[in-house]
């Protein structure tokens, strides 16, 4: 234990070297309103969790120290080749945090990045880690509506403002297209949607949670609505009885096991969405189109869902849009085989 503490102290001094004048610094203001001194030139960034790693990858993949979770084999072809084999670094935030501070410091980052909630819990973590390691730690607001701002803010911090602007503009155009399509649709006529997570489909997100905001942004009404604004919004465990009572007309999932079983399950077959064949399966390569994780990967899922919810109002060529999005955001030109697999996955989602 004494040796580990000594190692951490030594590494902390090394990590804080630029603060002592080795590197010029500038001050940035993160989404939590914190003034953070960062190096003038940022070369290496440690992503605190999966949402941050995706934000970093789409903006500046050459600055990544690794992935919080190494990509699965089926995800790798959908990532640019130079970044498929980056090391697994673990995560500092969220459920199942696995990174330790010694490992973070040993990766020699100029910056630690988190993308998601900016509640006091995460501010406290950022302050503590920054104080213990001497490495600047910025928090970027991960709310879906904040996506263009997040892309521009991190683009400026990392010294790639043109890249941030191009991605932010794409997102704003998508948001605007969907807003225009939904403007004349009364809320009472919008689909009643249930998000089915996990192999049994019984984990879901309450209305307003980061996991379901894509559904709500695409014009769906989340049936998991507690109605009490004081209840904290997040993931919850439901029951088939609750789903039957809510009786959604549309179900969205990214779990293939659940999707493969739902149409043959006698209890699920009593739900209107299943009877009508309105169960949609979102692709997950290289990242989920719905959530998993809830990051900028949801933008292609937003357009896909809006097209599923309102096929007469949101019209576009899914194949060409997916090709464009993957090239612009994921730095990869999909060959026909890989593109076909995604389109088959998304287009075959209802029956």
Characterization of the model:
Helix 5 (147-158) packs antiparallel against helix 6 and helix 12 (318-330) packs across helix 13. This protein starts with a helix and ends with a helix. The chain is α/β, with parallel strands linked by helices and 351 residues long. The protein has two domains: 2-166, Rossmann fold (3-Layer(aba) Sandwich); 184-347, Rossmann fold (3-Layer(aba) Sandwich). The chain has helices at 2-15, 50-59, 101-106, 120-133, 147-158, 161-182, 213-217, 240-246, 256-262, 272-275, 298-309, 318-330, 336-347; strands spanning 25-29, 35-39, 45-47, 111-116, 137-141, 192-196, 203-205, 221-222, 235-237, 250-253, 279-281. It is built from 13 helices and eleven strands. Strands 8-6-10-11 form a four-stranded parallel sheet. Strands 3-4-5 form a three-stranded parallel sheet, with helices on both faces. Mean pLDDT is 91; it is low at 1-11 and 13-21. Strand 4, helix 4 (120-133) and strand 5 form a beta-alpha-beta unit.
Keywords for this entry:
Rossmann fold, 13 helices, disordered N terminus, single chain, alpha/beta, 2 domains, 351 residues
Summary of the model, kept short:
By secondary structure, the chain is an alpha/beta fold. It has helices at residues 2-15, 50-59, 101-106, 120-133, 147-158, 161-182, 213-217, 240-246, 256-262, 272-275, 298-309, 318-330, 336-347; strands at 25-29, 35-39, 45-47, 111-116, 137-141, 192-196, 203-205, 221-222, 235-237, 250-253, 279-281.
